Amino acid sequence: MSVQRLGYMGFEVSDVQAWRSFTTEKLGAMEAAGDDNSARFRTDSRSWRLSVEKGASDDISFAGFEVDNAEALHAIGERLESQGIKVTAEGSELAADRGVLGLISCSDPMGTRVEIYYGATELFEEPFVSPTGVGSFLTGDQGLGHYVMAVPDIDAAMEFYVEGLGLHLSDIIDWTLPGDVKAKLHFLHCNGRHHSLAIVGLPQTKKLHHFMLELERMDDVGFAYDKFDADQSVVMTLGRHTNDHMLSFYGATPSGFAVEYGWGARQVEPGWSVVRYDKISMWGHKFVGSH
Ligand SMILES: Cc1cccc(O)c1O
Ligand SMILES: [Fe+2]
């Protein structure tokens, strides 16, 4: 039994209004609800996919992984507890806030809140309409997208996400960053998306390195690239990754971590073999400026 897909993410941000503008005007997500201290955004038929709440950390505050029914939720909760992980059966109030039928929560070894739920809310009666004309984000069984976290202890993180949540290793990249900094990236999948989560042994202040949204049209990546380029907020140029073959760029968010905006990734297929790489990209993905 494993989690089936990354369903939603929450960020704690110092400037909610900046995120409201960023997420709608640059990413093309649709605001679902919000006030001065919080906002929710849609990228498809679901009632929400991204949450921002006012706070000082400017970092990830929670990730929500989806299972398909109550039995699966119970099974994964039991497995986590059998591994000594403290699991909280969340009450109806938080379940209602998340718009789900059932929800448990725990913390990963880095102290990041992980929610596991079933029964998310679909809003087919209120079609997703992108404020920037984005055609559609690639979600569905592949979930929201992916995120990459910097962790101090790869083994502890792998044990939690592989043994605990049931994700599977797709591949490893030995990344040499500028300044000859070496980082080993572990990519983990729980459905056809090549990775819903990657973890990297990198000493960085923020837990979150970036989150990624995948588009169904390549031109939507290009249109967004021009928006980030117009205010010099491209962090890494367009490029194509070695492992998932995603064509993407990285842009700065108002919180200092990056967003990866991509198209055209290949999926993990049955019989997938774990391999390794020395490069993150076939071409491109060059760091820009001081970022
Ligand atoms: C750094 C990096 C390498 C390969 C795929 C990715 O999505 C990524 O962010
Ligand atoms: Fe990525």
Please indicate the count of domains: 2
Structural class: alpha+beta
Instruction: Report helical residue fraction.
Output: 10-25%
Name of the CATH class of the largest domain: Alpha Beta
* Helix count from the secondary structure assignment: 5
Q: Mind telling me the C-alpha Rg?
A: 18 Å
CATH fold label of the largest domain: 2,3-Dihydroxybiphenyl 1,2-Dioxygenase, domain 1
Instruction: Catalogue the unreliable spans.
Output: none
Listing every helix as H and every strand as E from the N terminus to the C terminus, the arrangement reads EHEEEEHEHEEEHEEEEHEEEEE
CATH-level-2 architecture of the largest domain: Roll
SSE layout and pairing:
Blueprint: E1 5-13, H1 16-26, E2 30-35, E3 38-42, E4 50-54, E5 59-66, H2 70-82, E6 88-89, H3 92-98, E7 102-107, E8 113-118, E9 146-150, H4 154-164, E10 168-177, E11 181-189, E12 197-200, E13 208-215, H5 218-230, E14 234-241, E15 247-252, E16 258-263, E17 275-277, E18 281-284
Parallel strand pairs: 1-4, 5-8, 9-12, 10-17, 13-16
Antiparallel strand pairs: 1-5, 2-3, 3-4, 6-7, 7-8, 9-13, 10-11, 11-12, 14-15, 14-18, 15-16
The structure holds 3-methylcatechol (MBD) and fe (ii) ion.
Q: How would you summarize what this structure contains?
A:
With 291 residues, the chain is α+β, with helices and mostly antiparallel strands. The chain contains five helices and 18 strands.
Describe this structure in words.
This protein has 291 residues and is α+β, with helices and mostly antiparallel strands. The chain folds into two domains: 5-120, 2,3-Dihydroxybiphenyl 1,2-Dioxygenase, domain 1; 140-287, 2,3-Dihydroxybiphenyl 1,2-Dioxygenase, domain 1 (Roll), CATH 3.10.180.10. It has helices at residues 16-26, 70-82, 92-98, 154-164, 218-230; strands at 5-13, 30-35, 38-42, 50-54, 59-66, 88-89, 102-107, 113-118, 146-150, 168-177, 181-189, 197-200, 208-215, 234-241, 247-252, 258-263, 275-277, 281-284. The radius of gyration is 18 Å and the shape is globular. The N and C termini lie far apart (40 Å). 3-methylcatechol binds next to loops.
